[in-house]
Amino acid sequence: MTEIVRREIIYIWYYFGIQLKQIFFYWALGIVIGSAISVFGKNKIHSLMSVIQDKHLGIMGIIPASLIGIASPLCMYGTIPLAAAFSEKGMRDDYLAAFMMSSILLNPQLLIYSAALGNFALCVRFISCFLCGIAAGLAIRIFYRDKHFFDFTGFSEGASRDTHPNMLIRLVKNIGRNIKATGPYFIVGILLSALFQRYVPADAFAKLFVNNEGFGLLMAATVGVPLYACGGGTIPLLQQWLADGMSMGSASAFMITGPSTKITNLGALKIVLGVKHFALYIIFVMLSALISGVIVNLI
Prior knowledge:
Number of domains: 1
Strand content: under 5%
Radius of gyration: 20 Å
Structural class: mainly alpha
Number of strands: 0
Shape: globular
Largest sheet: none
Helix content: over 70%
Order of helices and strands: HHHHHHHHHHHHH
Distance between the termini: 51 Å
């Protein structure tokens, strides 16, 4: 190994260590809280959605449906069967759209991760995702009032994997699955952030995301499409980008397009939406990201 390579490894390891120290606590806390909600709160989510349906809240039911979606710790392949079960019981499509959209964008685990970005970024993420869920519900209510938007044929809610009679062991097993699922992406995110910090000049980044706000918003919304693999993995990148001058509006756009165009999410959504509705979904996501970014930058 040459002296130059050894020196670069030391530099990257140094940046890696700094990022890990800053974010690890939020990642670990998010894992524990997300698992606790998954183990102890899933039935509560069921009952809350049933209450919304039974109360006949009309258009106002979109609001709690979006909030419940954020509170749900399920991935998209867990959310869709749950939504299918609600649909089978007669749940309206606008409520389901609000629930599913906000669930795609945010969950308790990712909310805790995002605290590493600071209080303002945390509030921006929560509010923008919440409002995006409401907007999705309103769009379905207005344009598909008398038609079905989703096709849940073939989907049914699977059996829970949290079945051990000892609740503590059940929680520990869920935490283990969460670590296994998110840990590799978390490490890769920190490594990418360290490489970015070492090799991408701050002035080049400023030209891309900072100096031209309109172009920066468009770039952030577009970059979120191929780059997003796991919420925890993008937090180190966002933290570094914000430190280097990325506007909060651009970060907001990235935080919407990223999870909503994540490959695994798109694969599941394509099944229940079909080609036409899937295209409308992509357009809705991009418009929501850009509008959110513009509003946040104005604030």
